[in-house]
Amino acid sequence: MKVAWKLALAYVVQHPTRTLLTCSAMIASVCIVVWVASSYDALASQFGQQATEYLGRYDFFVVPEDPENPTIASELTTTLRRDPAVAEVEPVSQSQVRLMNPNAEPEMDPMAGGMGGSMRGPTQRPPRDPAQTAAVEKTDSPRPKREAGPGGPPSKGNGADRPRRPGPSGPGGPGGMPRMRPMSPPTLVGTDAKDPPYELLEGVWLDHQHPEHRGAVLTKATAESLKAKLGDPLLLIIGMKEFRIHVAGVIGQGATQTGMMGMGRGMRRPSSTKPRTGVEAGPASSAIYLPRALADQFSRGKSRTNLVNIRLKPEAKSQIADFRKRWEPQLATSKPMASMLGLEDIKTEISEGMVARQSRQQAWAATGLSLLAALFIIFTTLSMGVTERVRQFAVMRAVGLTRGQVSQAIAVEGLLLALIGWLGGLAAGRAILAMVAHFRPELFRNGPTLGTWCIALTALSAFGGALAASIVPAWRANSVEPLEAMSPPRSPRPGSRRAIALAILGLPLIAINPILVYATSASMSSDTLYYVYMAVGCTSMAIGFLLLTPIAILAVERFVGPWLARLLGIEPRLLRSQLGSNLWRTLGTTAALTVGLGLYVSIQIWGYSMLEPFKPGRWVPDMLVCFPRGGLPDSEIDAVRHVEGVRSETCIPLAVEQPKLASDITRSEQFNSVTRQNNVIMIGLDPQVAFGGSDPLIQADFVEGRASEAIAKLKQGRNCIVPDHFLRAAGLKLGDHFTMVLPDRPDRKVEYTIVGAVSLPGWHWMTKFSGLRRREGRSAAMVFADYATVRRDFELHQINFFWMSVDENYGRKHLDRAEQIAAELKAATEAHRMPGGPAPADTDGPMDGRKAAMLLAGEALRPIADRNQGEKQPVNAQGTWAAGAQMFGESVRVSTPDEVLVRIVARAGDWIWGMSYLPLVTLLATSLGVVNTVMASVRARRWEFGVLRAIGVTRSGLVRMVVGEGILIGLITCLLSLAFGITAGWCGTGISQYVSFFGGLAPPLIVPWSHLFIGLGMALGLCLFAALWPAVLTGRTEPLKLLQAGRASM
Amino acid sequence: MNASTPQEKTTSAPPLRVERLTKRFRQGNTTIEALRDVSLTIEQGQFVAVMGASGSGKSTLLHVMAGLTRPEEGRVWVDGQNLAAMPDRELTLFRRRRIGLVFQAFNLIPTLTARDNILLPVLADGREQEVEPELGELLHRLGLADRTAHRPDALSGGEQQRVAIARAVIGNPSIVLADEPTGSLDSVTGQSICKLLQQLCVLYDRTIVMVTHEPAVAVWAERIVVLRDGQVLTEFPTAQFDDVHDLAAYYQDVVGSGPTGKPTGRTKVKP
Q1: Would you give the end-to-end CA distance of chain B in angstroms?
Q2: ipTM of the prediction greater than 0.90, yes or no
Q3: Which of A846, B72, B174, B222 is the most interior residue, by most CB within 10 Å?
Q4: d(Cα A812, Cα A806) in Å, to the nearest integer?
């Protein structure tokens, strides 16, 4: 081993430039892991502190475990009190409510989630004029009948409906630092505790003597979210009733830290209706505390004890484990069943929580990427070294070094480079963290430290990569025969035959993944398919592309090289075969670059392909108008049809309801996704206008059935047209029927028969903010049926929705007026615009006929709506968001496909670019390897360059030759990355249909060329830039020096 | 391949003996017989030069004797062990301990110092401590005492070759095989290297086989083996010549003779 270290160390020291470049790339690669993994370390360092904060002044929580009866028996509380170790046993009730602060400004960033009650746009702001204020002052009054109750729509307002934002920031802020998460819906906590459970920050604790004063104590997070101050009045909405209370105090359970949000009431899936048990039933992080008596009164005595807080006596604190051991069996056998939560449980829960899990996953992803980058960076360097030292290895073998000793020398060399890169990376990463901590101290509550996780992952990426990288070079080195020391050095030749053989081997490996995803998927369960896809499909595909690399190198060099040479004004033969002759180092460099660029391409293709089915298609009519307050009687239909800008012949009222499916035909309980939900959005419309004639309002393509037949059947009664994906998700076909339950009358069911299936890209987002989702956050399908039938079946007495197309010519004639309306709307809504997001509706951008007509129509509809104001219609929270659609006054809400398209493209773009950040940084780091490769190429050809200069080739000619080589490397990388990215993106889209929440919509393969060109251009630019330094160095060297240096190295 | 087991010992074990060696190479579709039925015995402490024209097979013979390549037929006995039958690892270890090699192009490891280059075979064996006492004397004798910290690119050709010779003998091998050791040196330096090899032979009782095509180099040996077309044409002692010119003339006479290898008698040979 000593000889291996001596040889490796000597080689590394004797090649400082190469070592420096390799280590720089390694340092950059390690820095990526430090940056990402430190976010998890920053989180992990707070787990203990957060758990302690969460417990407050208590030692244990007793939580229900029986989902059928999620309460704690009063006998259990009594027994607990008798335990001599116990100082305090505090039973509390927790229930979900809605809360409003009438004095606060409306929520500024509704897309960031928050309390259901605060999701109001400017037009829904509680009125300030005395008359309207009086209406609100009417507290303890029943709510309108169709207002959603607790556990309904408000629970959807926690932002869970929007796509999670992964990528570099992932769960955290920029660079993976923790990001503040949106608030969960507030929980009313009824308690008789004499002291606050957490530190009292402001005001006073609950006055149990005078509950009639209605003083409430808020957690800090709740107070901040509501912008509530001491003494502020609040509206507490429970079921159909509103209660007026006021803020008496604020306690310090801020709990906005990432880990804490997983606990208590905040961690339930919004769509879940199951009662909370176990950890989920712990103290709510977003809470409002009231005396138990008052909470009972507000909930009409329905509140139950579902949490018990326990504090031990000081002398018993040392026997916490004994206490737990004593009580756990009793709790497990109590009726209803309960369990105990202590410090360790909470710490575990936080560490296993979604945020921590996502952070860990990100760290693993960065480690994997970095490991691959390190692998190829070191592989390139070692390969170059082996190629240059074949004769030396032969001598070593001749004088008695065994094959094993030669291999060891290579492996040690790789480990040395990794060690330097790792230590340098840790130092550089630490410096970067310190710098960030200096400017953003809030991101590092416990200081910028390199935690265990960070150090372990960076070591794994650096040394794992180095060891893997050593395998082939070590094998090549130990294959050198001693006799080669006696022979003159062989001039390398492009190994065409070997490249072809490798390609033949690689192609079937690449084919495994698509076959797996698209041909054999039906025979496997989703879980099995996913694991096989990851373990076999992705691995074989990556190896396949690696095997394809040599042929790509030779092909680009042969076919593109001459063109590039001509473009650069150099003799094509001078550019030929440099890369192919040094296949291993070129392979290492291009593979390293492909790690970043290929991943970038695949993410872009996967992301935009997945987005496609969510983009509104041409079928969507120009305007969807919602009348959320009251609704229109039939007598107003004509008035709507004849407002300016509307084409009256294609303006139809809709009867809309969102009933649950009577049975779980989409298997949503088994796997919840965008296509597998427990309800549908039923839309009753005029079938003839919607689908008939030469210019139907809904220009949807019929995937199954014919339009004319479907229209006829729709007119006959309970028949319907469904989206094509609904048939797949529910396993239905034309002629089959399905049953729905009336929302307000669970005992009544209606059955509809499917008579047609259409392609409806983008229907999800068309319903998201428009108000069409009346009951639930998500839906399995948009189902079309006859207007009268739906209205009758679902007992819809008023008209709340219209679909219409507009007269563009009319709009063009009245552009000035439309501009004026747009300006007024913009001014009114600008203050509530989502930060960085698109303007609500079409108030931005150039005005055209269609947009003008829509604005004119919207404005003209306002008086019709105003004269028919009434009860607020049921709608999910997103259907009330100001930024979700264009409001004309209080009662007209307009959604257009253009606006939805802008919104979804902006949102998805943000998401996809977030994910693309890491691969691009990796590309940047690995581009240092190109400098190394070009340097090695230049070094090997110094004599040749000397001769060329001697016979009259100019400096610039040499520079262009070297630069040309760099560009060729870039082109090979682009070719490979494109091929890899398209295949991986395609397969990723395919597998997503089975395992992703957004799957099931059979998206087409979309190649976003304009986005890809950014990455490809970046790669080419980096290669060009990387080649410049060695090129200029060579160009500046005197011909004689080149000749001498070249001869010396021969 | 005609081979016996490595353990098989010959009776009076000279340090090097080759028996009926045949070595063939393929060049495209043609098979070239580089060595044909070559047999040769080198006694302990002998300094033997192998001469021949280009393509006569002299380098191939040296490579086979060094265990760098294997013969198709025949056996190579070094210290009583048959190299042709040894597995690769055993052969490598044998080469490390029992055979010293000197190359025409020096073949030093450019990243190692002169000292480390010399010690490379013993470093590989983990025996550097054992040879430490001898190293100083060897360096002194080779005139390298003040050059040990230099890397090859800072040494002259002669110095580099002396480092290579030191590397060849440091492990106390049974035989030293030198492939045109003066081929890359000027005549004066070449002569000094030859003298050095001769001294090693005389002073340290080394057995040396040197391949060369220069009579001025071969004359330093005590016996010359001449190869032609892969066969031993003749062998003779150098003592029978008064000077190098006589040797050169005799060599030319032998090489230019008929298939028997008998000289034409025009050259002067001592009785």
Answers
A1: 41
A2: no
A3: B174
A4: 11
